[in-house]
Write a structure and sequence with these properties.
Helix content: 40-55%
CATH topology of the largest domain: Nucleotidyltransferase, domain 5
CATH superfamily of the largest domain: ATPase, nucleotide binding domain
Order of helices and strands: HEEEHHEHEHEEEHHHHEHEH
Number of helices: 11
Oligomer: single chain
Number of strands: 10
Number of domains: 2
CATH class of the largest domain: Alpha Beta
Largest sheet: 5 strands, mixed
Radius of gyration: 21 Å
Strand content: 15-25%
Bound molecules: adenosine-5'-triphosphate, magnesium ion
Length: 350
């Protein structure tokens, strides 16, 4: 019997131990998670330093780095969990979205493991993985809830109706918030990855620079965003002040940008929780590691009955535990792939 035929007979186990594999960008990450909530081990090998000198991720460098790191990351995770491959009940892997060459390394590796061990192969959406990071933060968290999805490629207010059904209430019409942080970092002369560096600089400044209000006179969804105008306003401010020979207070500019970029996320998320009558708000994606956002949200839910779930910062940026957490949900649905599974550079958010 080949893998495809055997795969039809895979049984769904209770309390499964799932290995998550994430290679969509510049982190080679492998994690082992029990029952979708308990992290047994995780290993991340980042190639960020190699990309820093180019000011952003170079896809071919990322793919090559995954190829050399993935076996070590897997061995490290198994060793730390004191387990062998035989103890793993399923292999969950990011199938998309992301850099195609980078994804292919993880997908091919997961296929090989599933084939060799005769265990289920579970394809996972990277974005659903980001949202699932909240289940690791609060072991009792159950849908429904609202999440702010704020990453390098996405910005949205998402209604998580059940473990398997999510509705996007509104999203960015142009740049993602993380992308705006990265572009503003570049114009301020800060190195890659930009978000954490903008946050660091912003701590030394005050929000004194007037920046335009997002989506003024906009008639679309009240939960939509637009970061392109804000980013351009920062770039124009730098160029205009430089042309006038006026010295720029970079810390004040970073702080002003951070306020404009983040306050609107907080405002729309709180509105969505109240409008839907939900009790829980979570955050997901790399920008959710931003300290100002986390503080602003904590402040906004004070004296309300909203339960705020903040995943640890390391589970906001790309990691494999979140892939195993979402993999657990897919595993329970019996959503297994066969060995024709392919990587997808673009995946519609569902
Ligand atoms: N402390 C921070 N403050 C602001 N932005 C941050 C912070 N930490 C990380 N980011 C931003 O988060 C982004 C990376 O997050 P993430 O890894 O979720 O994105 P991605 O995987 O590239 O995109 P996506 O998940 O949408 O495919 C980058 O744009 C980075 O600048
Ligand atoms: Mg990501």
């Amino acid at each position: 019997m080949n893998y495809l035929e055997r795969a039809k007979g895979f049984v769904i186990k209770e309390n499964p131990i799932i290995m998550g594999i994430e290679t969509s960008c510049d982190e080679t990450a492998v994690a082992i998670v029990k029952n979708g909530r308990e992290i047994l081990a995780e290993s991340i090998i980042s190639s960020a330093v190699e990309h820093a000198k180019y000011g952003g991720v170079v896809p071919e460098i990322a793919s090559r780095a995954h190829t050399t790191a993935i076996l070590t990351a897997t061995k490290n995770a198994l060793k730390d969990a004191n387990l062998t491959l035989d103890d793993i009940d399923a292999f969950a892997v990011t199938e998309g979205a992301g850099l195609l060459g980078a994804l292919l390394v993880g997908v091919s590796f997961a296929k090989a493991l599933a084939f060799a061990t005769n265990k289920p192969l579970v394809p996972v959406s990277h974005i659903r993985g980001h949202i699932a990071a909240a289940y690791l933060a609060d072991k009792n968290l159950k849908p429904p809830f609202i999440t702010i999805l704020a990453s390098g490629g996405h910005t949205a207010i998402v209604e998580v109706k059940s473990y398997t059904e999510s509705v996007c209430l509104g999203s960015t019409k142009d740049d993602a918030v993380g992308e705006a942080f990265d572009k503003v970092a570049r114009v301020l002369g800060l190195s890659y990855p930009g978000g954490p560096n903008v946050e660091r600089l912003a701590k030394e400044g005050s929000p004194t620079v007037q920046l335009p209000k997002m989506l003024k006179n906009y008639t679309g969804s009240e939960y939509d965003f637009s970061y392109s105008g804000l980013k351009t306003a920062v770039i124009n401010y730098v160029h205009n002040q430089t042309a006038k020979g006026v010295e720029i207070n970079k810390a004040d500019l970073a702080c002003s940008f951070q306020h404009s970029a983040i306050d609107v996320l907080v405002e729309k998320a709180i509105k969505a929780v109240k409008e839907k009558g939900y009790k829980t708000l979570t955050i997901s994606g790399g920008v959710a590691a931003n300290g100002y956002l986390r503080k602003a949200l904590s402040f906004a839910v004070e004296n309300t009955d909203i339960n705020l779930v903040l995943p640890e910062k390391k589970y906001c940026t790309d990691n494999a535990s979140m892939i195993a957490a979402e993999g657990f949900i897919q595993y329970n649905q019996g959503k297994f792939a066969d060995l024709t599974l392919n990587a997808k550079a673009v995946m519609p958010f569902k």
